[in-house]
Design a protein that fits this description.
Structural class: alpha+beta
CATH architecture of one domain: 2-Layer Sandwich
Number of helices: 9
CATH superfamily of one domain: Band 7 domain
Strand order of the largest sheet: 3-2-5
Radius of gyration: 61 Å
């Protein structure tokens, strides 16, 4: 009987120890414990240290209160100025309310990650490329506000959001490199021009001082000669005064102005040259203009035989040598002609012309023009 009583007490003590061991829980310093009793939230959040729960009735869930570093995968998007970029970021957050982090959201880590990705794509579409590259602080603040707004109800606080890298296409990188190079070259030219301006002002002041003291210019010339001769070279410096060059230039210009060009004089005609006589139209023959010299130097048409010379003065070469007198222009006749009026007159008129020109005889003969009547 006593032995059975000892066995029962021992069994009860063992059960008590097992029960207590099953209900004993340890919460670490960076954690908080949330107890669910039969599926309902029981009491307040358990603080760090030793705590007891009802075995097989209560269920304790520990929540990490440390700052979590969550990398955001690279998101590809188009900026407001139509440039395709890939941007990745990192989010720093921590849980401030363990109960809400367990009750309000199923998995707060996954929720924060998805919210960060969508917010990052939205920021890319609302920003320009220059803002993504140079104004990241403002974008980080905007991204933090976009993620933190829904995360407050989850018991999560967003500490910081940082954009890590912005990947650009190769063509855009080359364009930006050319732009930066052009901008630097522009600034270099502006600086060089400013330096030239300042140097010119100083040189003008130095020239004014040297003009007052001519010996200063000679001393400067000697210093230049010494500087050139100090190097080990075969350069020979011969100072030549500029005033001598100016004197020679003035002398040459004065000599050129003293010689005035004279107009060419026409050759005088000989005294026995025939005087000009007024020609009577229709009576006196037309004098042919002087023919240019031949290639061999004799008078006549240029390079043409004498038979082709213009003998009638009408600008038509006398090919056959039968036109000895000036031609009379033919006028169209009216109804008196035997034929139709035309530019060349009637047939009878042609005959008259032939008789008057002496062409009724031999074609090859030249007839001398009749002397004009008194």
């Amino acid at each position: 009987m006593v032995q059975e009583l000892v066995v029962a007490i021992t069994a009860a003590c063992t059960a008590s120890v097992v029960y207590v061991a099953a209900g004993a829980k340890i919460v670490k310093q960076y954690e908080r414990g949330v107890v669910f009793r039969l599926g309902r939230l029981a009491g307040e959040v358990r603080s760090p240290g030793f705590t007891m729960v009802v075995p097989f009735v209560d269920r304790l869930r520990k929540v990490n209160m440390q700052i979590v570093t969550l990398p955001v995968p690279a998101q590809e998007g188009i900026t407001r100025d139509n440039v395709t970029v890939r941007v990745d970021a990192v989010v720093y957050f921590r849980v401030v309310d363990a109960a809400n982090a367990i009750i309000q959201v199923e998995d707060y880590r996954f929720a924060v990650s998805q919210m960060a990705q969508t917010s990052l794509r939205s920021i890319i579409g609302k920003s320009d490329l220059d803002d993504l590259l140079s104004n990241r602080e403002k974008l980080n603040q905007g991204l933090e506000l976009m993620i933190d707004s829904p995360a407050i109800g989850w018991g999560v606080q967003i500490d910081r959001v940082e954009i890590k890298d912005v990947s650009l296409p190769e063509s855009m990188k080359r364009s930006m490199a050319r732009q930066a190079e052009a901008d630097r070259e522009r600034r270099a030219r502006v600086i060089n021009a400013d330096a030239e301006l300042q140097a010119s002002k100083k040189l003008a002041e130095a020239a004014g001082v040297m003009s007052q003291q001519p010996a200063a210019l000679q001393l400067r010339l000697l210093q230049t000669v010494v500087a050139v001769a100090a190097e080990k070279n075969s350069t020979l410096v011969l100072p030549f005064p500029v005033e001598l060059l100016r004197f020679l230039e003035r002398a040459q210009s004065g000599q050129g102005q003293g010689q005035q060009p004279t107009a060419p004089t026409r050759p005088e005609q000989p005294s026995n040259a025939p005087s000009s006589v007024e020609r009577r139209p229709g009576v006196d023959p037309v004098e042919p203009p002087p023919a240019p010299d031949r290639l061999d130097g004799t008078p006549g048409a240029l390079g043409l035989p004498e038979a082709f010379a213009d003998t009638d003065g009408l600008g038509v070469p006398d090919t056959f040598g039968i036109l000895g007198e000036p031609r009379v222009p033919m006028e169209p006749e009216g109804p008196e002609g035997s034929g139709d009026p035309g530019a060349f007159g009637d047939v009878d008129e042609f005959g008259k012309d032939a008789d008057r020109s002496g062409s009724s005889g031999n074609v090859g003969e030249r007839t001398e023009p009749e002397a004009p009547a008194g």
